[in-house]
Design brief:
The complex is a heterodimer of chains A (about 110) and B (about 290). By secondary structure, chain A is mainly alpha-helical. Chain A is built from 5 helices and no strands. The longest helix of chain A has 24 residues. The longest helix of chain B is centred in the N-terminal third of the chain and has 23 residues. The chains are: A mainly alpha (about 110), B alpha+beta (about 290).
Chain lengths: ~110, ~290
């Protein structure tokens, strides 16, 4: 069990989003809200990227491991079933981050 | 017109994107997510199986040690405040609550949901207010109501048909005399029904007729203390038997909304709705 971080945390650098939001004139709770929304968006993009690479049976296994936050089993499954899974997770996160950065820039 | 702040602009964009991504995820991986919803046990605060995929992961990993920029706190959700409040009032062990505990909870729920929540009304109450809920089946609403006639649309059928129809009728028999006579209220009464053991309510044996009339379609509020979700339900059936180890039962729609599976804990209190103004179905926290 690995409570406290996501199984992909070591692959996804979100500090640039944090910094940009940190530089905005916001109340503390507004900053917290935006950060959580950003994380949620990134999480969904990563989940979609992973699930799209798995067959139905493996999706179920993956979600079972995810449900109990078992990082070891998640990685065992993902590395065995998806080529370059780490790169795919990074790409999904980076693509989404680009969109989030653009949203901030467009304000 | 007030100027929209940077926060509001960004929030609206990101909430919209969040919805789009959630929808896409649900659409593309619907079967697996549905499977997980029905096969996994529920975890801690707000982390029903489906939520792991559909809400922010922050929501499923509460903890003060999470100090990274993106793991600040998810206590921004108002339901989470309720969960936090309830955790102080509801024991982890599923047991009968003391009168003081019940009163405190009734007051807290009244305040949080803006309805008059009560342990009992006119001296009538159930045997308990906190217990294990079981999964019930659909009830026939009128003679010849079957799973083919039961749902208004294909989406509801896809979501809720799995539990099937109970072989017997509810405690009050049919909800309507015929399909043609069935009202919207009748439909909602079946859709959001609960079964409670009216027969072991204190005083039932000496006031059978009075209690039966009191309990019939009586509105109650059910709250999942693990995620703060609440629903206004009505008593549509009597049960379950004590030997089942379950204290009440919920319709498929009630269970799905609360994100509860068989034998999981809920709070259930009466709602005093003298003028029948409070709608059956999900209820949100007051703003």
């Amino acid at each position: 069990m690995n409570k406290g971080k996501h199984f992909y945390s070591h692959l996804v650098d979100t500090s640039t989003i944090s910094l940009e939001i940190g530089n905005m004139e916001l109340k503390k709770e507004e900053r917290v809200h935006l950060l959580s929304l950003a994380e949620s968006n990134i999480h969904h993009a990563i989940m979609d990227a992973i699930l799209s690479e798995l067959n139905e049976e493996d999706k179920k296994k993956f979600m079972e491991h995810l449900n109990i936050d078992n990082h070891d089993e998640i990685w065992k499954l993902l590395t065995g079933k998806i080529d370059n899974v780490e790169e795919k997770i990074k790409k999904a996160a980076e693509d989404l981050k680009k969109e989030l950065h653009k949203d901030i820039k467009d304000l | 017109m007030p100027k929209t702040s940077s926060y509001e602009k960004l929030r609206d964009k990101w909430v919209k994107r969040h919805r789009t991504l959630s929808k896409r995820l649900l659409t593309r991986h619907k079967d697996s997510i549905e499977w997980l919803k029905t096969h996994s046990k529920q975890l801690a605060v707000g982390s029903a199986a489906s939520a792991i995929l559909l809400t922010s992961p922050v929501g499923s990993t509460l903890g003060p040690q999470q100090a990274s920029s993106f793991q600040t706190t998810e206590q921004i959700g108002r339901e989470t405040f309720l969960v936090s409040d309830l955790s102080k009032l509801v024991p982890q062990e599923v047991r009968e609550l003391t009168p003081i505990e019940e009163e405190k909870l009734a007051n807290a729920l009244s305040r949080d949901f803006g309805v008059d929540v009560k342990v009992g009304i006119n001296g009538i109450r159930l045997n308990r207010t906190y217990g294990m809920i079981g999964q019930e089946q659909h009830l026939a609403r009128f003679p010849q109501d079957t799973m083919d006639t039961h749902f208004d649309n294909a989406k509801d059928a896809a979501l809720y048909a799995r539990e099937g129809m109970a072989p017997g009728l509810g405690a009050w028999r049919y909800f309507a005399n015929s399909q043609a006579e069935m009202t919207e209220e009748d439909k909602l009464r079946e859709k959001y029904y609960i079964a409670v053991p009216t027969f072991i309510a204190p005083g039932f044996n000496t006031h059978v007729a009075e209690y039966r009339d009191f309990f019939k379609y009586r509105k109650m509020i059910l709250v999942n203390p693990d995620n703060g979700k609440a629903i206004i339900a009505d008593i549509g059936d009597s049960g379950p038997a004590e030997w089942t180890g379950k204290h009440l039962g919920g319709s498929p729609e009630v269970m799905a909304y609360l994100e509860r599976v068989d034998r999981t804990r809920v709070l259930y209190f009466f709602v005093d709705d003298k003028n029948n103004k409070i709608p059956l179905g999900p209820i949100k926290l007051v703003k």
